[in-house]
Give the backbone structure.
Amino acid sequence: MAAIRFSNVFKRYASGQDALLGVNFELASGEMAFLTGHSGAGKSTLLRLIMLMERPSRGQVWVGQQDLSRLHRSQIPYLRRQIGVVFQNHQLLFDRSVFDNVALPLQISGYDPADAARRARAALDKVGLLAREKHNPVTLSTGEQQRVGIARAIVHKPKLLLADEPTGNLDPELSEDIMRLFGQFNSIGTTVLIASHDLSLINRMQHRMLTLRNGRLVADV
Amino acid sequence: MSRPRRKEPETPAQRSTERGATAPRRGAQQHQILFADRSRSWRRHHLNVARESLLRLKQTPVASVMTLAVLAIALALPGFLLAALGNLQALTDGWDPQPRIALYMQTELSDAAIDSFSRELLLREDLSSVELISRQKGLEEFRQYSAFADLLERFDSNPLPAVIMVLPKDSDPLQLPLVRNELAALPGVDEAQLDMEWVQRLAAGLALAQRGSYVLGGLLALAVLLVVGNTVRMTIESRRDEILVSKLVGATDAWVRRPFLYSGFWFGLLGGLLAWLLVQVALMLLAQPAQALADLYLNEFELQGLGFQGSMIMLASATLLGLSGSWLAVSRHLREIEPGAAIPGDV
């Protein structure tokens, strides 16, 4: 049972740049994998295709049993609700508290407010920031902001968790903490795919590693 | 603590069986469970968003007040014009125009014959008054009031006909021409003229003014549409990040649209209320001089406001304009804000 499946996927941007060239892979449900490659290799593009932030030029992407090429624009929000995403630049909103940032996906999905509050606090507790729930994210350190982003990504308990350079700006110790957190989510059954170029960290984690080079998948170990 | 709203697998085993059992999209059964929740959360979201977008107006008080003032003036102007025209119409409806018919007698008739003809007219039941203006009297009046008095010097004899002014009892505009025709056919009558032109002119003038205020109203409605549209567009720009993040975590277009539509709604409604207030104040200021004018015409007249119906129409159209203006902005600009192009990062 595949959580993600890429079948001969090409992506060429309007600028003429080829980001992905014939990518094939499958990520099983409950698996955890790293996606690596140098800057510009196509890691972000691959993640964006899963989120339908972009559409492939050729080939097919499946999420679960859903063929994304058959997904109408109006269905995209429901796909995204099944996925949790952690961004490199965390994409937090600075006009509201940490708590409101984390509760946003639940609010959007229409959870009962009391239920949403309980879940948002549980997610914040998991990343160790429950005490900061009333703070504005701008007052937090980079590492803490990243953890808020993670809490927001997992607050609705998605089946699939994607992360784009989640440790990009963090020191090694913090990075390791965050990776351990992803490991924990994976151990309760969440499928996790992390794009990262931090090879030393990835090697220590002992998970499957997909390597992209110039848009091609060159290694899958 | 309330019950969990969503069915949610707690263990990996459960998770995989559930996923295996469901169709590519959610299973029908689960979908049904969600429906009641969804409509409840939909209502809740509407209430929240309505409240928040109202509060948001307060966050930028100066800008909001300015926008509302522009809207109020643009809405008040046609409202005021229509109210004024309504009053003018009520005023003229109260006037009895007393249409008179002027009978121009043949000039070769003697004064005595005309005199006896006018006495015969007095006996008719369909006329309420008869007034004879003899040739001589007409000449004197012409000398006195007309700028062309010297013209008369060129004539050897008095060129003016005798005129008999009659007042028909029935002032029905459909009946009057018939009476006129009947009188014109009487022997000795050269021409009979129904003196209704000024009433018709007034009516035509009013119709023109009314049409004019509709046109003006249309233009100002367009202005309201654009003002609200532009204000909402700026709000959309200032909340760009929020829109992007919301879309990334699964917000539907409707969800993203909602706060902006509500701001348009509030702009329209509040602008309409202010406009209504402006119109009422303006009418209050006019009430006294209007009364004085009406008194001169010995008329039973009282200045009318917009009335309940007029007020409701004004508020409703203001609200509708606000909503449409924001709809324009939202449909034009929200689609441009898509996560695809906006998230920086490598390829």
Remarks:
- The beta strands of chain B are 100-105, 127-133, 163-168, 189-195.
- The two ends of chain B are 45 Å apart (CA to CA).
